[in-house]
């Protein structure tokens, strides 16, 4: 499919720019109003036409029966030759009308199905794309707090539940309203008593159905939660199958899962038993209504106050009304359940973005690539700044254009947090960060991300081919259209071409979920190749060579030196041997920069950095094993 075809199927600009409401009704109405209103009206008209014509069937049936009986209240006439019925003009007229109503009603129903064919799939697509568009703009913290599989499932469920809700609104409810209006009109013309019975029973039946459905919904949710719990437990065991095998815990895990599934069975039995009782009483109520209505009609016909044709009309009307009311009552549970599913999905997904990125913001224009942190303040949610919970409390730092800066220090010093703040993955509580004099909080997030290439410690790879994962660093849509030569050149510079070409499928090798088919070092080299191809003016390395063997690390270090040229570089490292050639090394502790200088200057200072260096190169020698100067002279 071409890119133009793809773009034409995306939501309209009015939809994509409109804020998403969290109310299920307002959410559904927004999509219907802005893209599907005409089709929704056609669905309603087609449903009304189909049931409306079917509702006129009792009229045709009354006329046909009265025509066959000759006179109202008389029996079947015998005024025709033996064995040869007489088709009078009146009988033929009513017969053709009855057949025509059936055919026309069927055509309206098929028309509705045709309109729905071009409505439901497109509406589901628009809802899912729009929800995913909102979802993907949430902050990294949001995705850390929620399971990825659950989020994807909520997006799919929202689209499906919205379709089912719309189906009930534009079909079942419309059919009930129309058939009740026709039924009341016809029954009032016969007897007011029948009209009162119809309205009273319908209201009572649907009210009872709604009350029982709400009660059943609580049992359904309890069963759904039990299923989710057992499914999560099962997935957890499968994901840790190697651990289960290593500790010979198969029987214990199986026993625990069996106990959990027993709870699921109990909730299922409760739900099924309630449904059985609910359908029993509701269906019996329908039968009682029809029996009473038809019984009264029989009494009226025998008393001569109703023709045989009117009796046939009431009998047919009772059947049509009862069938449609029963159909809606059985859909009540599904209606409330799908409403709950849609509401739950919106509650989880349609939340205000922690880091807003409203449309219309200017793009970041990067020239030299200077970076300045001005008095930044940041604390993770839930931490108490008064008890030392702040990560940064007034940190300032300037990185000159093209400068290569390394961040070192113990875990928890704030190194990775500083980089994430630069990427605008966390919101600042104070201060600002500037790139080439532009506040990154005031530019579009997409342009900021285009300006920064990052090679993380644990690279993320798609369950796609190696070629697609490397090409993802290009400016093309999803990496499509990138020249194969450019991909291979990037792979060669990252020294991953040898292991790629050593696989049977080569660059078309699918790496598995999160790159599980590759080793840690291979994943990092693919990520480095992706950074080569992105060619961003600012480069961030977060332990980019931590999973490489010594020989490969040496090759990558050479490759990175080429990548450093003309770029501003921030590198986080725990192995100090990887940053000795950087222009500046910042030693950090508890969100503060304690030392700033190049490798040689920091060694001469004999401070925290020097002590850390001594532990690493000296094999964890004690601090009194000699000064750096002594060690350098000894070497």
Automatic annotation (TrEMBL):
Annotated Gene3D superfamilies: ABC transporter type 1, transmembrane domain, P-loop containing nucleotide triphosphate hydrolases
Location relative to the cell: Cell membrane
| Domain of life per record | Bacteria
Topology relative to the lipid bilayer, per the entry, is: Multi-pass membrane protein
Sorted alphabetically, which InterPro entries does this protein's record hold?
Answer: AAA+_ATPase (IPR003593), ABC1_TM_dom (IPR011527), ABC1_TM_sf (IPR036640), ABC_transporter-like_ATP-bd (IPR003439), ABC_transporter-like_CS (IPR017871), P-loop_NTPase (IPR027417), Type_1_exporter (IPR039421)
Give the transmembrane ranges. 36-56, 91-108, 165-187, 278-299, 311-329
Instruction: Read off the SUPFAM superfamilies from this record.
Output: ABC transporter transmembrane region, P-loop containing nucleoside triphosphate hydrolases
Which GO-annotated molecular functions does the record name? ABC-type transporter activity; ATP binding; ATP hydrolysis activity; ATPase-coupled lipid transmembrane transporter activity
ABC transmembrane type-1 domain: from which residue to which, for each copy?
A: 41-325
Q: Which key words tag this protein in UniProt?
A: ATP-binding, Membrane, Nucleotide-binding, Transmembrane, Transmembrane helix
Q: Where is the ABC transporter domain?
A: 371-615
Q: Where is this region: Disordered?
A: 1-21
GO-annotated cellular components: plasma membrane
Q: What does this protein do?
A: Part of an ABC transporter complex. Transmembrane domains (TMD) form a pore in the inner membrane and the ATP-binding domain (NBD) is responsible for energy generation.
What name goes with this protein? ABC transporter
